[in-house]
Amino acid sequence: MVGWRDHIRFDRNELAGSFGDIGTDFPLIVGMILAAGLDTASTFILFGAMQVLTGLVYGLPMPVQPLKAMAVIVIAGHVRPEVLYGGGLAIGLLMLALTLTGLLGRIAEAIPRAVVRGLQLGLGTSLALLALKDYVQSDGPAGYVLAGVAFAVTLLLLGNRRFPAALVVILLGFLYAVAFQTDVATLLRSAGPAWPVPRVPRPAHVLEGLLVLALPQLALSIGNSVIATRQALADLFPDRPVTVRHIGLTYSLMNIIQPFFSGIPTCHGSGGVVGHHAFGGRTGGTVVLYGALYLAIGLGFSRGLGQVIGIFPLPVLGVMLLFEGVSLMALVRDVAPSRGDLVLCLLVAVAGLGLPNGYVIGLVGGTVVALLIRRGLVLRH
Fold this sequence. Notes:
This protein is mainly alpha-helical and 381 residues long. It has helices spanning 4-7, 12-17, 22-36, 40-58, 68-77, 81-100, 103-110, 113-135, 140-157, 165-181, 184-189, 203-236, 244-257, 270-278, 285-301, 305-310, 314-329, 339-354, 358-374, and strands spanning 65-66, 266-267. The chain has one domain (4-330). It is built from 19 helices and 2 strands. It has a two-stranded antiparallel sheet. The longest helix is centred in the middle third of the chain and has 34 residues, at 203-236. The protein starts with a helix and ends in a 7-residue tail after the last helix. The model has no long low-confidence stretch (mean pLDDT 85).
């Protein structure tokens, strides 16, 4: 019989696992705040609260992440905050409609595992490239040394339940930040209470957010946030089944609630599941602890955003992001024995990495090709 401690646990391994997705989340959140002028306290508080609630609801290291396509558009295009919140509400309502009508489940059943693995391979590769090109190189020679030490420590301790790799690496990064990057006195002086800013999205902003943000995000969300996440949970926690409907509902509710408190749009994600698991997370306690970190920043330190950003070195985040990406890429091993499935997986991954709206093209095109193969219209070999 599964007990409470199997669902929610707080120990050093859950704490270590809580840092398994920070390399993806934190830079995107900060980038959106700076690009769109978002309210810092609201952003961090709502993001942390969603983590805590998700951990309690699922009892698994189910991640909450910024919507990546939306984040990229916001950071690159300087979208106004009200349009971002409108887009979040729009995609929440869209996903709720798909879930309640059963269309989301039918879409999930129609997409072959090889296509899902291709999406994961493409995403994992993009995370690894981001880690190597942007994060590890961010601090010059000192950053390379720091990243090298962090990589060696992670490789040595990965899977160690007594001395979790992430805790040691996080401690290393914190000591480096205190010694070379952060004025602790200034950070402490910037501390002070802050609260979310309530708002009511206007219909015009919801419509604009739908066209500019929600529609480009929708295919990636169905592919990675719902279908690939369900698959990653089935791979890592086969005794704890989670349905597509359940994931669709929590995805929807998060995005319907958050715009009314100035929170950024969020999703679940297969990379986060794998990242939390790779660093030791096995229960919902992992994301509860992770969410508590963001709540603490939002409630107590959001006035000193510049210091909060600088408190942790990017090369260390890059190493953690690299291991998350590699772990996600490794999931393709179950389609490797079939040459046809492996080729389809690789084609989807290449489309996702190399084409505009590549994940949409890979998802739809890969599914169509698989259907043609099943019907004998395309040769299997």
